[in-house]
Amino acid sequence: MTDLSSDPLRPHEQAVPLPAAFDAQLWFIGRIRTPWTQRGQCPRRGDPVEGPECRIELFEPWTPGLTGIQRHDHVQVLYWMDRARRDLVQQNPNYGDRATGTFALRSPVRPNPVASSVVRLLAVEGPVLIVRGLDCLDGTPLVDIKAEFGNTR
Amino acid sequence: MTDLSSDPLRPHEQAVPLPAAFDAQLWFIGRIRTPWTQRGQCPRRGDPVEGPECRIELFEPWTPGLTGIQRHDHVQVLYWMDRARRDLVQQNPNYGDRATGTFALRSPVRPNPVASSVVRLLAVEGPVLIVRGLDCLDGTPLVDIKAEFGNTR
């Protein structure tokens, strides 16, 4: 992870010292391919209807986990915002006159930078899902895919 | 984490060898308190309308991250299913005649056991959120809370 903790804060933002030890660990189970290579290009929120087609590429040994996924119109995707700093508890994304708590935002800047989007599943091509509705940089690590039902998002 | 990888498989289930090295790490930022102390008691899915009130307790130093969260009727909660095995790519939750891929399910059994629920936010009491709509065991570790907007769940 890039260490961004020395980046300057915006007015009203608050950073905290990070805990010394982690509590749990993740594997990256795949990679997300999108048209966006710089953070400024990413949409603020993915659009499952009008957004561009993106690819979710599963790594081995996880590909048998896709069996049956084509029965779902929508899936939830969890991914790792590996470029975001993790020490801000209050943020000021619009340079306003006050800060908002990290947990009252969906910013990638958060203690555990796991992003979540519900995407439309267009096609399954072997170990690759073609979807609409993502918002992240090309190359973003994949953490999970879950069947999506209307009431559990 | 309890090692459950030697538990017997159900018919049609498939386990894979786990990767040697992890790719990313999490902090547990709080703890979830629910009425359920055994897995068999947990509902299959949380109910934000009729489900019981549950508590989400934030740890320090993260509590300033709640500023402004009371403006949201619903929040998304990510939590760590620390009792689930991580090596199954195909599962048979109903002992049926075939398996379903892990990514076509919402089972806690998955490579990265991060669960996600959208809950109704009833009250904020200092570092504690009172919510309805969870489905997990009492004591479940908290990974993230995000503002919830209808179209991003």
From TrEMBL, chains A, B:
Gene Ontology BP term (one): methylation
Keywords: Methyltransferase, S-adenosyl-L-methionine, Transferase
GO molecular function, one term: methyltransferase activity
Ranges for domain TsaA-like: 26-153
InterPro entries reported for this sequence: TrmO-like_N, YaeB-like, YaeB-like_sf, YaeB_N_sf
Record keyword Isomerase present: no
Top-level taxonomic group: Bacteria
Keyword Aminoacyl-tRNA synthetase appears in the UniProt entry: no
Sequence similarity: Belongs to the tRNA methyltransferase O family.
Entries under NCBIfam families matching the protein: tRNA_TsaA
PANTHER family: TRNA (ADENINE(37)-N6)-METHYLTRANSFERASE (PTHR12818)
UniProt protein name: tRNA-Thr(GGU) m(6)t(6)A37 methyltransferase TsaA
